[in-house]
Please model this.
Amino acid sequence: MVNVTIDGIKVSVPEGSTILQAAKEVGIKVPTLCHHPDQSVKANCRVCVCEVEGNRLLQTACSTPVYEGMVVKTRTPKVIEARQTILELILANHPQDCLNCIRNQNCELQELAEEYFIRDNPFELKTRGLGKDYSTPAIFRDPDKCILCRRCVEACSVVQSVNALGLENRGNQAMVVPTMGKSLIDSPCVMCGQCIHACPVGAIGEVEEIDKLIAAMNDPDKVVVTQIAPAVRTAISEEVGMKTGEMPMDVFVAGLRQVGFDYVLHTNFTADLTIMEEGNELLKRLTEGGTLPMFTSCSPGWINFCETYYPDLLDNLSTCKSPQQMFGALVKTYWAEKMGIAPEKIYSVSIMPCTAKKFEASRPEMQDSGFRDVDLVLTTREIGRLFRMSGIDFTKLEGSPFDSWMGKYTGAGVIFGATGGVMEAALRTVYEVVTKEELKDVNFTAVRGMEGIKEAEVDLNGTVVKVAIGHGLSNARKLMDQVRAGESPYHFIEIMACPGGCIGGGGQPITKTNAKRQERIDAIYVEDEACEIRKSHDNPEVKVLYDEFLHEPLGHKSHELLHTHYKPKNKKFL
Model:
């Protein structure tokens, strides 16, 4: 332990700690922009400078290690003036359009400008005039707003190993740019949106489409139907000023009815359906000699990654569509028939924690209903904006149930929202299908948690099935390299593109730490425990679907509507 004095307060911290960490121990806030608690130290914004006794120059708190007897001052006139000047210089190259910005009132630069009383900037405003990049259907870039913190670069290259963003030029000519071209669509971007969470300002964001929803709701010829992804419920509370997971599901449903949705259904229904199809696909591969290990196919960012970097392993992917796309195909066929509504009138909207879902819905493969299966994808953040715009007080709203035929779900569908959830849901069903025995404990805890790669095994009547779970694409790469080398011991691998799984998706409320992701995961399992039914094959509405429409898992109708195929992307990224 090292003894340090910060602003007159004595504190003992572990050797190797930084001034920033020591200050946090005694409740002193030191401002940062380039610093991110789950990333490496960068020390390039200089906003965190402090005075250290014995040093003539100011020191960066995020990168300067403490030593025995160190005396630090974080609030002197010299420090305050330096921080103000640094912020003024950053703002002199930053567009002053806060009212129009996607990060208005949720911007780290905006917060510091207010905290440090930035009013009249002595420096001339001069932006680069680079323009916005709307080349992808999911994510846009506004390079004029980039403050060169490089947090997005690390999220993309280290956490995700995608390398779609990089640094170009040096000094005042330096820019963060898409690799392999001038636009994001030309890069190997998988549209996972982790760069959005990393960015402290509005330089990267989701493509907003609330206006399309409002237009559809005002069209008398459209019936607007929505599905809610499992990870959304735990995080939507954060968008309306409540604690994580605090909003009851029936109140969330009532809120969606209030803003104008005609029917409210749940993606958890097709999550249960996915388990029926994917579980049987795994069993067929195990018994009939199919390609192993089989990879889950629920995460579109992961699918993009596989198509881009591992096209030789596409046969390992499950042919199942994601729950979003299964829902889209069924809502305009099965559900439309049950409700007596013409499919061409149905406007199918999904509420997703994921930016890559916007791209997935636009894929040409996703039109098996005879129409575009999912017409519009809105992120959790977009629905949060819609709720705030509508002025709903969720503390006074009376709950409302889901609509019939695709609104019933089980705890297995709920846990799709967390890393390991798809695997656990599959094991709950596969075990009972194979052994014909009821599980006494449905909790497969070995597949839970934020560890990057997890593994487990289950005995299915003498056949030991080995499984692995990876979340975050750098972890996916490790598992994929093992498979490519012929060294994988696994039969079934779940991969989610985003750290923590869907609860940390690119469309969730801005997530600054893995601790927040864990908080959402905990809320997911609380909801699972509260469900009356916790195994997908026990979902009564899924049973009706098979009895009346699909007839059997992996049958002709299932393959027609619920399964798909993927193609290699441009090989220049390999």
